Amino acid sequence: MPLSELLYYLVVFCSRGLNSKRQEQGFALPLALGLGFVMVILGLSTIMVAQSDRTSAFNRKQAGASLAIAEGGMARSLAQLTAPNNAVLLNRNYDTINPKTGKTYLGPDGMFNSGDEEASAIDEWTSYDPSNHPCYQQKGWGSPNFATTGSMGNTGSYTVRAYRFNPAEQQGTLFVEASKDGKTTGVQIRIAVRSDLDDFPGLVLHDPEPDDPWHVGVLALRGRQILGSKGNVYYYPQGSQDSSLTSNSTSGDIDRASYLNAIFSSSASDGATGDTVSGTLFACLLTPTIPDGIKGTNFGTITSSQTLSGVGGHTPTLFQIEQIDLAGTDVLTVDTTNGSVVLDFIEDSAPEQAIQLKDMAQILNVRTDGQPPRVGDLRIHLRGGDDTVLLYDQTCIQNAFIWSAWDEVQLLTSGPGCPGGQNTNIEGVVWAEGIFSSKNDPNNRDINFIGEVGAPYDTVITPNATSGIAVPEDVSSLIDLLKYVDYPVRYRFGGVLQWQRVRL
Predict the structure, then answer these.
(1) How many other C-beta atoms can be found within 10 angstroms of the C-beta atom of residue 45?
(2) Closest CA to 418 of 371, 475, 374, 360
(3) Is residue 496 part of a domain?
(4) What phi and psi values does residue 68 have, to the nearest 5 degrees?
(5) Closest to 168 in 3D by CA, of 115, 95, 109
(6) Which residues span the domain enclosing 44?
């Protein structure tokens, strides 16, 4: 029975007792007893209300304390991520298991309870230590030492439960859980993540098997141009003309001539005229390890003009290719207006020439919505050991990312072939085991790549050929690949895009 109703009945009882006993003696005793009982009930109710308010206030205080600890833990975590050695984690994922659901906290979309949470924890942080990689060592940053837990006061603690990076949006979502005297709460924030891409690997010459002398990452430009401020070259010192160089050199450095000589671009021996590379030359080994994706439609061999189109969505449209062999004015047009495209070559299906372009043939990444094509929206993956890219005459591959895991790209062209007027045959980003040019003169020194003296890239002579590769200024569409190449990128987080308290 509610307290107010009980009090009402007590007052009525006392009133009735008073009226009925007015004619009788001793009416004061029942009245005193009734009123006393009312006072006792009122006192008890006051104590109960006060105790309830005190409990609520205590709970609010404890909840506020745990929230403060969660915010403090968030601040500490962000402070740790400002250090260069920990900032390399900002493009990697960490998502532990929520004991209440048995799945990860956030999932790939960085949102709670959206349905994409995984049954297994995602941890790309704990065992990641790039400090032994040669290019990373040039930075001198040291190993990551990010602490996912911490304490505050005598009874407070916090734990980083999840971090998810969205490369397309260049955003990160961080979730921190805190506990104080048994009260638990959490804070989630979404932050803008920006990468310092000044040293972006526009050209990578890697060695798939450093212990095998038959596989050496070699760059031999022989006077061909590498254009663009992102036209940075990462080459393997052991596969160069000077293995003693283990640092880097920018245009104008006192040792620039030595670095150019190492990549077969000296004026005396390779027909180069001046400095032919716009970016920085890094004498250190990067090794791409791009994971295999889901296989798409098999288009077999492409020998004539046609168009392939992306169909949209959050994942690229995948096509399996055995060979591209174009000549004359044939053009393979890849329309990325509605979504990105990956051309994944079937391993060793076309020995020695996965891509061969002659005359004025082209592979072009285009858009029809007025926006410029992005280099990351057309990706060419050559995973086999005999997947050579051969470009002759005035041919072109434009707005593409080319990755040759086990083979080389050969520029045997006589002049530029890409639309737009640059002195180029490739406009994009190239990661390959080797990039070679034809000789400008019979007396130019041989490359002797993997012991094959007299191979085509040593014997073909194309006088005065300087057309080469232009790396675009905007390479942000390839940011998702950087964690697969050990590139020591410096990430920074900007403003907080969203703050949210999470009740667990």
Answers:
(1) 14
(2) 360
(3) yes
(4) -60, -40
(5) 109
(6) 3-59
